[in-house]
Amino acid sequence: MHALVFNLALLWLAGLLLASVGLVARRGTLAERILALDTLVLVLIGLLAMFALDRREGYYMDAALVLALVAFVATLAAARYYDEGRPS
To answer: Which residues contact 3 (CB under 8 A, 6 or more apart)?
Structure first.
């Protein structure tokens, strides 16, 4: 049963990844793209965590942690850019 739940979770995250890529590719406002990219990164972090669990290697969790930190800073920078507009 554990393998079935694990595989269903991987399929669910893969579907969410495709939906997130579709949201990023769609022509929307800047705020919508920022949210879609943040969602995309969160799904990638989930996939990396599941992959680390499957492979039983900590390197993937390290990559997920670094990706989370970089995504946090990037989201803050994008939100600041959105709030203040283009720098002069």
So the answer is: none
pTM above 0.70, yes or no: yes
Separation in Å, CA 67 to CA 26, 49, 56, 60, 80: 23, 11, 19, 10, 20
Domain ranges of the chain: 2-84
Q: In this predicted structure, what is the pLDDT of residue 88?
A: 54
Which of the listed CATH numbers 3.40.30, 2.40.10, 1.10.287, 1.10.760 matches domain 2-84? 1.10.287
The one-letter code for the residue type at 10 is L
The DSSP line for 27-69 is ---HHHHHHHHHHHHHHHHHHHHHHHHHHT-THHHHHHHHHHH
